[in-house]
What we know:
Layout: E1 2-3, H1 4-21, E2 28-35, E3 38-45, H2 52-58, H3 76-87, E4 91-97, E5 101-109, E6 113-114
Parallel strand pairs: 1-6
Antiparallel strand pairs: 2-3, 3-5, 4-5
Helix pairs in contact: 1-3
Keywords: Kinase, Phosphoprotein, Transferase, Two-component regulatory system
Protein name: histidine kinase
Pfam family, one: HATPase_c
Amino acid sequence: MIEKFLITRVIHNIIYNSVLHNEKGCTIRINLFKKDTNVIVEIKDNGQGASPEKIAELNELSFKNIDISKIRTTGIGLKISKQIVDLHQGSISFASVQNEFFESIISLPIFNITN
Length: 115
């Protein structure tokens, strides 16, 4: 079952990340579509992107070595989003090319939505 509040939090975290880490004027595009028995949400910005090392770190589910004094740059919001999606039996992946884009792709199984 999809918990609407938590999935809303995931989407908020991703959009907030784009706004926080990019200059004014960055475009954020959201695509939503059904694929087989899943709902796909693609969120992509045309901002500064992230390094390959940061993408590899984000695609792992790990909270090791998080410096709380640098909480706005650790990616913890995206890691929490990954945990939420995993709890919903879905998947989330991150891709990027530095100085070109950052993209998050969420795949969730279609269930009934609850409040």
